[in-house]
Amino acid sequence: MMQALKITYLQRRDVNDEKWNACIASSVNGLIYAYSFYLDAMTDNWDALVLGDYEAVMPLPWRKKWGITYLYYPFLTAQLGVFSKELSVDIFEDFLNAVPKKFEFWDISFNQQNLFAVKGYPLYERSNYVLSLNKTYEDLYKAYRENVRRNVKKSLRYGCCVKTDVLIDEIIALAKLQAQKATEKGLENFKNLFALLDEKGMAKTYGVVSQKDELLASAVFLFSNNRAYYILVGNHPNGRTLGASHALIDAFIKDHAGQDLLLDFEGSDVRNLQFFYSSFGAKEEKYAAIKLNRLPWWVRLVKQDAY
Fold first, then answer.
1. Residue 75: what are its φ and ψ, rounded to 5°?
2. What DSSP assignment string belongs to 170-236?
3. Which residues lie closer than 8 Å to 301 by C-beta, 6 or more apart?
4. CA angle 188, 193, 195 (to 5 degrees)
5. Which of 131, 268, 272, 287 could be cross-linked to 263 through a Cys-Cys bond (beta carbons 3.0 to 4.6 Å apart)?
6. E strands within 52-202?
7. At 269, phi and psi to the nearest 5?
């Protein structure tokens, strides 16, 4: 049984990439964020917990500050946690207990298959929104809220045009206008990751331009494990009144309708964004997260958001 296997803590240099990625690819909850190439690109550092011969794995993204080593939430890495072909509360609890004690502070997300109640670990729920594209475009379009259909028509009426293969630099430039938590380093890391995934055929860009060829809305979509991730979004203020972002998502849905593909909006706990995603017929998908503070009492006086 898997519970009888040993969980080993490995530093990044000791992880077998081939076995690691094979585990993510075959997991019931495999996500693009957990592949070694994604973690290498988007984290400052990461180590790993591995069950047996990579029957189950858990990445541990970490940083060090003021002599304290802590687990953190990397930029554009919505869900991590435990990945395996077989998951249970016992396996999940074993992994949590196997996290080395040197990680005294945790602020991390798990995934939609890690929603277990485990004593001693203050897990809480976060919201993601996903839309199955395994229907005809006509059926998907019918599930839109009226405001989405109205905005899609408005964008056409004002002469907006959808284009693909938008330059990543243009999307990043727009993303900077609204991505408050984005750092120059984080965006540069993602640019490098995009180049890698683009070569693998795992990335695509979309944009909506005005009649004057001004980029009004843009997004990067990544593809993995039968999911398409709506991951880096850049919207110009001028596009808000023209339905540009609605038109962009509608175009992606139209292009991929009928495929065994889940459009992953990456979720949000912001109500306005939740309404926006659900307006396309997307359904809520809960996933787990945790904030755990095991710092000495005198260090806890420092604000947690310092990490």
1. -60, 135
2. HHHHHHTTT-TT--HHHHHHHHHHHHHHHHTT-EEEEEEE-TT--EEEEEEEEEETTEEEEEEEEE-
3. none
4. 100
5. 131
6. 56-65, 68-71, 83-84, 103-109, 123-132, 161-164
7. -95, 5
Report how far apart, in Å, the C-alpha atoms of 141 and of each of 149, 228, 287, 303 are. 8, 18, 27, 46
Please give the pLDDT value at position 307: 46
Of residues 77, 52, 51, the one with CA closest to residue 61:
77
Residue extents of the structural domains in the chain: 2-127+287-306, 134-260
Averaged pLDDT for residues 266-279? 86
pLDDT at 302: 57
Q: What average pLDDT does the chain have?
A: 92
Query: For the CA atoms of 131, 134, 135, 138, what is the dihedral angle to 10 degrees?
Result: 60
Closest CA to 55 of 5, 116, 110, 115: 5
- Joined together, the tokens standing for residue 8 give 């080993």
Q: What is the mean pLDDT of residues 74-89?
A: 96
- Find the range with the poorest average confidence among 14-18, 200-204, 220-224, 271-275: 271-275
Token pair belonging to 50: 């591995």
First to last CA, the chain: 38
Q: Considering only 58-67, 137-146, 201-210, which range has the smallest mean pLDDT?
A: 58-67
HSE-CB at 243 with a 13 A cutoff on CA atoms is 21
CATH T-level fold of 2-127+287-306: Aminopeptidase (3.40.630)
